Amino acid sequence: MSPPILVDRREQAEQELAREIADLVRGRRRLVLGLATGDTPSGVYRELARMRRDEALDFGRVVTFNLDEFLGLPPDHPRAFERWTEERVFEPLGIPRENRHVPGVDAAHATVPERCAAYELAIREAGGIDLLLLGIGRNGHVAFNEPGSSREARTREVELHPWTREDAATAFGGLASVPERAVTMGVATILAAKRLRVLAFGARKASIVRRALEGPVGPEVPASFLRGHRDLRVWLDREAAAELGTGRRTVRS
Ligand code: PGA
């Protein structure tokens, strides 16, 4: 993989990535995006919404696939990723309703395995994901591919790792309210995207960033599988890059 891009301020990474996405939006008849949720990607979505407002960037031909979703929450639950994405991506960017996809929630299919299979099919029918935006969890997860996930995994139901639930506890008003299960794109689904764009910010990610980028590749740190992708770009702020070997710390001025 090419060396991670180091930035002094996360806004630099957010703007660079938003610009790349905007160029693809403008240059294509249709663009298929994979969407992460949470703090990490939120600045990229804010910047894209600004471009829609100030530069009349038109997202009418953009198709989206969310990476993951909790199981057992109604879609309008304030912590459902579907709701999060609606407020920060679908509405501010003006993604047409019929172009939005969230795993595990499709009422046309009765069971979770059927919904997962339908999600994989929908991605294939859309022509695959052109660009997928990703964060890295403290435990090395990508989407909800928790430690132990295989390189071959596809969209499926998973049990959430204790750290993942802990990290969500404040938002849910306590650990007991955090769902135990979720649906996630698999590692293989993610690796099939044409471009992978990864962001990690802050000191709490430093240790897992080192393991993901410099440690052994394997299921213990699912993010390490990303290194096998031919079009991977990783942006880090100085805090997240703090534990990398010095040779790898190429700084973007
Ligand atoms: P964060 O999580 O955005 O809450 O830091 C990243 C992730 O878990 O993928």
Molecular structure report:
The chain is of the alpha/beta class and 253 residues long. The chain has a single domain, classed as 3-Layer(aba) Sandwich (Rossmann fold), CATH 3.40.50. Helices cover 34% and strands 17% of the residues. The protein has helices spanning 10-27, 39-55, 81-93, 112-125, 162-172, 187-191, 206-214, and strands spanning 5-7, 31-35, 62-66, 68-70, 100-101, 131-134, 156-159, 181-184, 195-200, 232-237. The protein has a 7-stranded parallel sheet, covered by helices on one side. α1 crosses α2 and α2 (39-55) runs parallel beside α3 (81-93). The protein is globular. The two termini are 20 Å apart. The relative contact order is 0.18. The mean pLDDT is 95. The site of 2-phosphoglycolic acid has 6 residues, from α2.
Entry keywords:
7 helices; 17% strand; globular; 253 residues; 10 strands; Rossmann fold
Topology:
Layout: E1 5-7, H1 10-27, E2 31-35, H2 39-55, E3 62-66, E4 68-70, H3 81-93, E5 100-101, H4 112-125, E6 131-134, E7 156-159, H5 162-172, E8 181-184, H6 187-191, E9 195-200, H7 206-214, E10 232-237
Parallel strand pairs: 1-10, 2-3, 2-6, 3-5, 6-9, 9-10
Antiparallel strand pairs: 4-8, 7-8
The protein binds 2-phosphoglycolic acid (PGA).
